[in-house]
Amino acid sequence: MLKFVGKRLLMMIPVLLGISFVLFAIVEFTPGDPAQLILGEGATREEIEELREEMGLNDNFFVRYVRYVVDAVQGNFGTSYRTGKSVVDEVLPRFPVTLRLAFFGIAGAVIIGIPIGIISAVKQYSKLDMVCTITALTLTSIPTFWLGLMLMLLFALKLGWLPATNVENWTGYILPCVTLTAGTMAMILRMTRSTMLETIRQDYIRTARAKGASTRRIVFKHALRNALLPVITYVGMTFGIQLGGTVIIESVFSVPGMGSLMITSIRMKDSPVLMASVLLAAFCAGLVNLFVDILYSYIDPRIKSQYVKG
Amino acid sequence: MDEVVIKKSNPWLTIWHRYRKNRLAMFGLILLIALILVALFAGVFLDYEQDVVHQDIIHKLQWPSAEHPFGTDKYGRDIMARVIWGARISLSVGFITVFLALFIGAIIGAVAGFYGGKVDNILMRIMDVFLAMPSTMLAIAVVSALGTDMINLLIALAIARIPQFARIVRSAILSVKGMDFVEAARSYGAKDKLIIFKHIIPNAIGPIIVQTTTNLANTILGVAGLSFIGLGIQPPTPEWGSMLSEAKEHMRYYPYLMISPGIAIILAVLAFNLIGDGLRDALDPRLKN
Amino acid sequence: MEKKKLLEIRNLHVQYKTDEAIVHAVNGVDLCVDEGETLGLVGETGAGKTTTALTIMGLLPERVGQVTEGELYLNGVDVIHAPEGQLKMMRGATASMIFQDPMTSLNPVIPVGDQILEVLELHKKDKMSHSEMEARVDQILEMVGIPAARKTEYPHQFSGGMKQRVVIAIALACEPLLLLADEPTTALDVTIQAQVLEMMRTLKKELNTAMVLITHDLGVVARICDRVGIMYAGEVVEIGTVEDIYTGEKHHPYTTGLFGAIPDLTKKTRRLNPIDGLMPDPTRLPSGCKFHDRCPHCMEICKTAPPQDITEGSHTIKCHLYDKEVQK
Question: Who among C90, C108, C167 is closest to A226 (CB)?
Fold first, then answer.
């Protein structure tokens, strides 16, 4: 198992390299001169040229890319063009905010989505199933920013129960988390329902029924573990992506998280910060996926034996 | 149920019969047709310059009335006219983006699946890199690099969707490639082209259609989202997301500004989601019974 | 000594209602099985054999599969009208079923020993302690030829034949009165088939279990069964002892077709011979005798009137050819 984890961690390296390369290339195409950006509008041409030389911006694209990678491996991600602070100092305080948002958003979605999805599948064609299916479908069709604004309008602006934008204390997290939960919950519900429907049609479920097992037992002992495998993958992937910042929700609720940091750095051409935050996001997504795979192997013995062999 | 013998008939007709029985899916189809008609004929009833972007500050921020069923915005423009015109924008951006992604993705996936080996490996690893980046993030980065205009937005949104189609087409090809009837076709000397068009495409078309509809839904959401944060379609073009962005600052006292563009997005996305679900059930009816 | 009837099916009709059509899977089946007896059910795919077995277990697909007519008594229990709770007690204890494909019949995420243990936990909780149940799992595994030590392994660690042994162990763990085996060896290699069948025969004798064996293989039927039923388009067209079917003189034309000639135990007719034509579409069954458009002896009456059961001793044939009224 340890060997497997090590191998998986190694496999993340090419992906991270690939992502950093693509981003580096995109930044290269982005109009705007970092030296100009740092020095401001009033700088003379000589000053800019001097700084460019000092920063190594006149070097060939590949030279600069390799230099970036070498520095990054040593933990040096450069300094922000926008604030002049070290990139690490810019990014790290943002991360816990996004982590909290993503965690509670997903946790809510899992806690609500999976049980309802199961009930919906077991009671297929019932009124309840119909209501759940339509609700979930509608929720996935609502743009998150609109839902967020509507919730804000109702609970913050009209009723005044919750703050609209402030995440200084936990009440500020409620609206963004609920917004995030709604969409993810709907996806998880739909997925749980369909994998559950597929699982309860498997032959081994018929075997279990032929043994005289009750519906409850069949659902919880025989179907659930098999049905949840794809759902776990989905949850892991979504969590991974949301760790990278929930750009639109953070923008709606003015949450100072990774997403809004990325947007700011894109707008201000602050490429060191952008690169670092996307790489951190991708790294986290990779870690979450690895964790999911390990979890998987405890649920599905077929996968475990693959790892032991490999 | 393996004892049940199914009648042989035109498979597309059978799928359509199954689809037609699904009331939700039919609702989605009718909704979509209505939206497409609205988009197509918007130009007949409305004059873009006069009705959609012309500012009329005197009549700004009017609550819905007989004259302006959805009210007017902060520049005095009729929101209904803008929402109707918005259908044009969203649907065309959606369709173009998804078909662009489908086209490129299908080629990449087909090449990878058909030739296998190293080609497959390299192409798919590149796709993995793109998949590892959140699609909104990727689109934002591309738009900021290329600049915010319609074409760049299309490219940005399409890039994020290419890997999904490449994967589907590739796996469809791989699953069909090993099947007996393809081997048989090979053995009696069928050309690659014939195999692709006669055997592989008909077999891969189901998942592709489903993925396309789901992607259309997601793309419409994506365009609205990007426009909302100011990186998509720019005002005064009446895109639903940018309308909401403009409306946001007044939402406290003029909440009606938020309603109609929001509902329009939901209806369009819902239409595609319903159709996608209906198609999935019609193409693969195992879970129905 | 009069043998006790374990299973009695009278005039059973089963339909599958799908979105597209109504499938008439079973159309008036009459069967009975005595205690300890083995009945073979033979017929082409789609003849309604599996549906009949699922009905006996009360396991027809919900919503879709419906018994529309008929009676079915298993060990005195009215299976068609019994409440689900009573059926649960019956399944696995009074009657067990072995399904066709061992590869998919076992839950991939549960060790095989636990899957056997489960059926004991469900039915023997009052009679056995946990350690007794564990011991029983070991014992039954050894009985089907699997070392008890392997009970902690998962299904994917077993071969197809071994998996089917596990399935059989599950089915026999509670020593049921009736075992329904739906083509238990079709999915297995030929060499394994013989082993598994031999084992089933021995176990059946040891435990004095009655069995309904669904199969395509006439050779298997001759070796294992006491009586044989031939099914066609949801009906039992001929039923009798192995001798009646293999050495008797009168046969349903379909049976004759199945054997390719007059069936003969001495000739090695092991596989079904193809008969001209196809099974009728179960959504649109023909009028009269359902076999009439394939029958070489088809008469006018066969096209309109369904034939009655004609019984001589232990041998029953559903055919106008042997109906004295018709022959007059």
Answer: C108
Check CB contact under 8 Å for A301 and C104.
no
Task: Check A208 against C107: CB less than 8 A apart.
Answer: yes
Domain hosting residue C163, numbered range = 106-175
Q: Of C122, C154, C175, which residue sits at a domain end?
A: C175
Q: Is pLDDT above 70 for B179?
A: no
Q: If you search the block for the tokens 């043998």, which residue do you land on? A: C3
Residue of A98, A124, A146 for testing the chain B interface, max B β-carbons within 10 Å: A146
Q: Are residues C14 and C63 in the same domain?
A: yes
Q: Reading across the β-sheet that carries C235-241, which strands appear in turn?
A: C95-98, C178-182, C210-215, C38-42, C227-232, C235-241, C315-318, C309-312
The answer to whether residue C302 is domain-embedded is: no
Chain C nearest-CA distance from A207, in A, is 6
**Residues in chain B closer than 8 A to A261 (CB atoms):** none
A 56-115: CB under 8 A from B: none
| Beta-bridge partner residues of C41 | C214, C229
pLDDT tens digits, residue range C138-149?
Answer: 999 998 889 999
| Structural domains of chain A in order of their starting residue, each with its CATH number | 2-86 (no CATH), 95-256 (1.10.3720.10)
Q: Beta-carbon neighbour count of residue A96 at 10 Å? A: 10
C143 in the same domain as C18? no
Residue of A nearest to C156 (CA): A302
ipTM of the complex: 0.84
Residues C220 and C164 in one domain: no
Predicted confidence (pLDDT) per residue in C6-21, tens digit: 999 999 999 998 777 8
Whether A146 sits inside 8 A of B258 (CB atoms) is yes
Cα B40 to Cα B42: distance, rounded to the nearest angstrom:
6
For residues C164 and C71, membership in a common domain is answered with no
Query: C76 and C122 in one domain?
Result: no
